Structure formats: structure tokens, C-alpha cells
Amino acid sequence: MKLLREPLVHFVIAGVVLFSAYAWLNGSRPASDGVEPVRISAGQIQWLRQTYSSQWLRPPDANELQGLVNDLVNEELLAREAQTMGLGEDDTIVRRRLAQKLKFLVEDTSRLAEPTDAELRQYFEANAARFEDSPRVSFTQIYFNPETRKDAAEDAGLVLAGLSANAGDDGAELGDRFLLEAEMRQVDRQAIANAFGDEFADALLTSQLGKWVGPLKSGYGTHLVFVSARDPVRKPAFEAVRDEVIAEWRRESEQKVSADYLARLRGKYGVELDDSVKAQLEPLPAADVLMR
């Protein structure tokens, strides 16, 4: 298992996969005149059958299979001649497709290494914050519409002063009509951010409990907020989030394998930018460049 996680092994496996795929699709053969003939393998026939069956929910009959083979041969002939003529050079679509296929092959090699339960637990502990339950907040808000008020923030400040002087006042009738509920209970941060924005959500997670605060800005305008309860962050048991942990582990492994492979390709081929290009680009950390 340890050997399978070594980056060098990933690259070797990727090379084997690429070579095998090429051999499977094209066969190995130069003809006597130096031109390689188009060959159709049993694997390709099986692929044609499976593709047809997936689309039409039945296998192809003899005539249909012959038509599929003819289409495949024609496609290979046209693709080969187009390549010979250089039609794929400087073609954005062709370049992206080839790059995408290689990227998928490289990322697939990371899936050959499966983590042990102990490794997953170690990953879970090292990245505990990713799997914590978001704190839940219960709050009441008063909305001040900037489109109908001369200075919504100033009006909110005046109302806040009155609420602070009269702690028993719930303030329900002091604001403007709002399309969302004035009172929300046990709402997590993401739900608050979806409704009001990230800045508003973060403010609620740090606002003083049992006291009107503000003005706070949202995507709608200005608010005063009274946070009545806030549950602490809860760390779940490993068993409860094991599927999430392994999904994150795999995603991170794929990214690392891809970044390592791209770093090796940069070393192999080199990358040069014209001075005029460099002047137009913001400098990026190497890791960000490799992950793109």
C-alpha cells in the first residue's frame, strides 16, 4: 500500500496505462510500405456493442454492427489523414480534448491507492475543521430598505439606540417590510450566507448574545440583529463522516498527483513566456499555476 502512494509509481502506472490504451486502440503494426493499416480489435468491437446497448437497450444485430464498424473505420481514416495534414495543430478544441484525456488518466492512477482505516483516521484528525458541524444561530433581524430611506444606516442607528434604552422592546414594527422571515431559528452559517451574504453570516457568528447589534450590511440593505442563541461548533465522530473523509482524501490525492505530474512536465519541456506576456500577467504561486 505504501508503494502505491509514491508519486514515481503513479507516473510509471500512468505511462503503462497510456501505452496500453494506445496499443489497444491502434494495435502494433507497421506495414511493409511504412504506412500502418487501420486495425479493429476485439476490444473495440466489445466497446461498440456496449455503447450501442447502453443507448438502445438492446445489442446491435449483424447489419447494425457492420455499420458501426464501418463508421469507426471511416472515423479512424479521416482522423489519421487529418493528423497527417496537420489539421489538429493550433486547434484549441483538439488540444483541450487531448489534455483532458491525459489529465483523467493521470488522476485515475491515484485511485489505485486506497487508504487504510488508520490513514483515514489520521487524515480526519489533521483536517478536523473540514468535517465539523457548522454552528447554528437563532436570531431576529430588523430590515431598513436603502431604496425607500434617505440614509438607512443612520435610521438603523437611531432605532438601535432606542432598543438599547428599552431592552424589553422586540423591535418587530420598527423596520421595513422584508421578503424573509424576521425571526430564524437553528440556522447554519451556509444557510445564512445564502440568504444574506458571507459578511452578514460571519458577523452573526461573533455577535454578542442577547443584545441588539448593528447596523449590519447584507445583499438587501441594512439590518439590526438580535442573536438569541448560538450552538458551538461540534466535531462529529469519525464513523459518522467516514464517506466524506474518504471523498476528501481522494480529491486531495488526485490534486497532488496531477500537480506532481505537471511539475515534471514543466521540467521536461520547459515553459517560456515572451516579455510582453509577462508584463501582462499577475505573478502566481507555483502551486496555483500547477493546479490549474
Automatic annotation (TrEMBL):
Q: What highest taxon heads this organism's lineage? A: Bacteria
Give the record's keywords alphabetically.
Answer: Isomerase, Rotamase
Would the keyword Isomerase be found if you checked this record's keyword annotation? yes
Q: Where is the PpiC domain?
A: 115-243
Q: What is its EC number?
A: 5.2.1.8
Catalytic EC class = isomerase
- Catalyzed reactions: [protein]-peptidylproline (omega=180) = [protein]-peptidylproline (omega=0)
Q: Report the family membership.
A: Belongs to the PpiC/parvulin rotamase family.
The protein's name is peptidylprolyl isomerase
Q: Which organism is it from?
A: Mesorhizobium escarrei
